[in-house]
Design goal:
Protein name: 4-deoxy-L-threo-5-hexosulose-uronate ketol-isomerase
Strand order of the largest sheet: 1-3-4-11-6-9-12
Order of helices and strands: EHHEEEEEEEEEEEEEEEEEEEEEEE
Keywords: Isomerase, Metal-binding, Zinc
Number of strands: 24
CATH topology: Jelly Rolls
Distance between the termini: 40 Å
CATH architecture: Sandwich
Pfam families: KduI (PF04962)
Shape: globular
Structural class: mainly beta
CATH superfamily: Jelly Rolls
Largest sheet: 7 strands, mixed
GO molecular function: 4-deoxy-L-threo-5-hexosulose-uronate ketol-isomerase activity; zinc ion binding
Helix content: under 10%
Number of helices: 2
Function: Catalyzes the isomerization of 5-dehydro-4-deoxy-D-glucuronate to 3-deoxy-D-glycero-2,5-hexodiulosonate.
């Protein structure tokens, strides 16, 4: 298992960062490494961002020294979304099948989590994990079971479908919330108008970006913004003080994941586009 750590950055510090420093601190470039589980332990609400890419062998989610835990989910929960073809995950001997863009929530205390390969379908498992104070049932969530909202308009280049998969309107969790936003053809802007939320942090994972296309992710304080150019299958960490918005050279899909003290999806501090600097 491949793992690294990212420390929290004060809002006054990031203003001095070069392009390379912004990318080193906030961008996660290598989510899917063949036959590996790759993860980043962040010091923002202790969220772990990672991916599993089983190709020739099953991959077991294991603990590591920094967790100081007997097993990965001893004090944690995890949300997983499959961004590849149909795949299977076993949790303490029970098998769960995930189609493309379907989710699996695994509660605290589950000991054996195994991601299985499939040569024909090529599943790819993206995940977020956060500390958990209670045990909630493990279960899958399909696209049909998601809390789905249509939002935006083609006239403002942000017509999109939001699918809330692992949120408290669908199932109970301690901290982790995850879902998908799918941009319609001809739309490129996500999360516009932007917002911050001081009570939780967020991570964005971009996928289904066509070859030779890219997404520009905007971050930072509303009056002191920065940008990071991102490619397919990359993630970016968003601190509580930062906006999190993006625009692509094509339409795309992204996974938003959150951790913090508030599970109210609508809890956000909006920023008017004309106020951005």
């Amino acid at each position: 298992m491949l793992h690294t750590s990212r420390h929290a950055i004060h809002p006054s510090q990031y203003r001095t960062f070069t392009t390379s420093q912004l990318r080193e601190n906030f961008l996660i470039e290598n989510i899917f490494v063949q036959d590996e589980i790759s993860l980043v332990y962040t010091h923002y609400d202790r969220l772990i961002v990672g991916g599993a890419n089983p190709v020739s062998k099953p991959l077991t989610l294991q603990t590591f020294d920094s967790l100081k835990a007997d097993f990965f989910l001893q004090r944690r929960e995890i949300g997983i979304i499959n961004v590849g073809g149909k795949g299977t995950i076993t949790v303490d001997g029970t098998t769960y099948t995930l189609g493309n863009r379907e989710a699996l929530y695994i509660g605290r205390g589950s000991k054996d989590v195994v991601f299985h390969p499939d040569q024909a379908t090529k599943p790819l498992y993206y995940f977020n994990s956060a500390p958990a104070h209670a045990v909630y049932p493990t279960r899958t969530v399909t696209l049909e079971q998601a809390d789905t909202v249509e939002i935006g308009a083609l006239e403002t280049s942000n017509q999109r479908t939001i699918r809330k998969l692992l949120v408290n309107s669908v199932l109970p969790t301690c901290q982790v919330q995850m879902g998908l936003t799918e941009l319609k053809t001809g739309s490129v802007w996500n999360t516009m108008p932007p917002h911050t939320h001081d009570r939780r942090m967020e991570a964005y994972f971009y996928f289904n970006i066509p070859d030779n296309q890219t997404v520009c992710h905007f971050m930072g304080e509303p009056q002191e913004t920065r940008h990071i150019w991102m490619q397919n299958h990359q993630a970016v960490i968003s601190p509580p003080w930062s906006i999190h918005s993006g625009a692509g050279t094509s339409n795309y899909i992204f996974i938003w994941g959150m951790a913090g003290e508030n599970l109210d999806y609508s809890d956000m501090d909006g920023v008017k586009p004309t106020e951005l600097r």
